[in-house]
Amino acid sequence: MNPAQLDSCDFAAILNETPTAAAGPLRTGLGYRMDTSFAADYDQFRKVDGVLVPFKEITYAGNTVTSTYQVIEFEWNPPNLDAALKPGSRAFD
After folding, report:
1. I need a surface site. Which of 31, 45, 51, 62 has the fewest CB within 10 A?
2. pTM of the full structure
3. What is the pLDDT of residues 20-46, one digit of tens each?
4. DSSP letter (8 states) at residue 71
5. Domain count of the fold of the chain
């Protein structure tokens, strides 16, 4: 793997380092330095009971997409929420 093609998240995984929350570039033992910004884009807003809710979220580390979430269904305070949040629950399956 060519280190020039890696972003700082890759460096952290390879070197078993954890980037800190402090502002500034990640410095590695390999001598490489890269600035990485983190961002999220929210899209596909729909009204749910009069409140705009984003039904899509895309997160980025630098120019790399790290996750994409697509909400299929949204309900405020569902009646079975407590049961669904218990470890091992399959309430929403």
Report:
1. 31
2. 0.52
3. 444 455 555 555 556 678 999 999 999
4. -
5. 2
